[in-house]
Amino acid sequence: MRFLTIVRHCDAEPASADYARVLSPAGRAQGRYLREQVEMGALAAYGPATALVSSASRTRETYALAFAGTPFVRALETSDLIYNGRRDVSALDLIAALAEVDPVTDNLLVVAHNPSVYELAATLAVELPEAVTRSGFAVGSAVVIEIRDDQPLSLEKGRVVAVVEAPLV
């Protein structure tokens, strides 16, 4: 098996231009918390991964704080197509985008937006933990799902093996 780590960007400042929203101080703290989980915590075992990151400022900043420069990420792709501020991005859209960057041998990481990340987790997980369903996928959270290692990402369901919720302080 290999793993798909689904991350919702960390807390962001309000702004008139949604695409340009940057992380709040609390969001930057969440990013540092996620980095701890990547380097030696609950996420450490699920890399190295090919990462697909929305091109919006807050997702790129979340990626930079939590994942950049770590052994967790082997390759990085950014995408305008998975930013849902310009159009509704469905779970199927995310699956298709991930399949395009998926070498079938790597673990995968996606850093994107709600409701897309929640829909992706709900579509691919056999069962979502209560913490995820209760929060609707909180900012600064990650869900790791087992995926098959012999075919591209598809609608096949997998088991959730880890959930990390960065505290919002």
Brief rundown of the structure:
With 169 residues, this protein is α/β, with parallel strands linked by helices. It has helices spanning 25-40, 57-66, 91-101, 116-124, 130-135; strands at residues 2-8, 49-54, 73-79, 107-112, 141-147, 160-165.
Polypeptide structure, described:
With 169 residues, the chain is of the alpha/beta class. It has a single domain, classed as Rossmann fold, CATH 3.40.50.1240. 31% of the residues lie in helices and 23% in strands. The protein contains 5 helices and 6 strands. The protein has helices at 25-40, 57-66, 91-101, 116-124, 130-135; strands spanning 2-8, 49-54, 73-79, 107-112, 141-147, 160-165. A 6-stranded mixed beta sheet has the order 3-2-4-1-5-6, sandwiched between helices. Strand 2 (49-54), helix 2 (57-66) and strand 3 (73-79) form a beta-alpha-beta unit. Helix 1 packs across helix 2 and helix 3 (91-101) crosses helix 4 (116-124). It is globular. 45% of the residues are buried. The model has no long low-confidence stretch (mean pLDDT 95).
